[in-house]
Amino acid sequence: xxxxxxxxxxxxxxxxxxxxxxxxxxxxxxxxxxxxxxxxxxxxxxxxxxxxxxxxxxxxxxxxxxxxxxxxxxxxxxxxxxxxxxxxxxxxxxxxxxxxxxxxxxxxxxxxxxxxxxx
Length: 119
Hints:
The protein folds into two domains: 14-44; 46-98. The protein has helices spanning 9-44, 47-69, 75-98. The protein has three helices and no strands. It is mainly alpha-helical. Helix content is 70%, strand content 0%. It is elongated, with a radius of gyration of 32 Å.
């Protein structure tokens, strides 16, 4: 203790600084974990897919609200909705075609002759 019964300032500062440093380190660690999650998500999904999904949901909500209120849905919105929906179905079809088969194709056991082109 310092003279006059007062505690020296340097004795109180060290524990406070340790708490501040540990808090900052934990914030940095949380930020790093979040950034790794976003980075892995962006590596797997293209940005066009995420924007398309957002637009698709927004247009769906708009169409539902317009229908409930009895308003006519503009053709531009309904056509854009169908185009984006087609993009997702086309993208899904490409993914299933590119996926490897789970089992190898079996040889043709029913017929020993090859007929070639029959046309």
